[in-house]
Write a structure and sequence with these properties.
Layout: H1 26-34, E1 39-45, H2 51-67, E2 72-76, E3 81-86, H3 92-100, E4 105-110, E5 113-116, H4 118-145, H5 153-160
Antiparallel strand pairs: 1-3, 1-4, 2-3, 4-5
Length: about 160
Amino acid sequence: ATECDLPEHRRSPPPIDFSKVDPSKPEELLKMSKKGRTLMVFATVSGDPTEKETEEITGLWQGSLFNANFDIQRFVVGSNRVIFMLRDGSLAWEVKDFLVSQERCIDVTVEGQVFPGKAAKKDDAKYKQQNDVKAKKSKKKSEHKKPDLEGNSASHLKQEL
């Protein structure tokens, strides 16, 4: 039997050329070690979706990835959880980068590492963000009232009095 006929766990891992590995990028090494191996990427969908909604949302994600030439299978494993199975695990990080940028993605798990998605920031910091926006707006208004010529508003006020 040739290597290709063997089940994946029996195949020898792809040879890694360590001279091409950038030690400051451990992900590069992981990518190389996963080349040609099946890898699962887990994703969580925000907003308490039903399984059907999750099916629809993640179907769109899968479609986008498919259009970008990612050979990927999708399995909905809960009302808001989905597994994307990649034939070539070295692409997992690109898939992860795509998924975390999606509006409804809370998090993506690759090889036991959890990466927060766009929706995670919203849920945790929803209240904080609203306040930040208000604070920014009020600051802007006060900045535009009078140009502060000396850079010291206290002495500026004295002159007006």
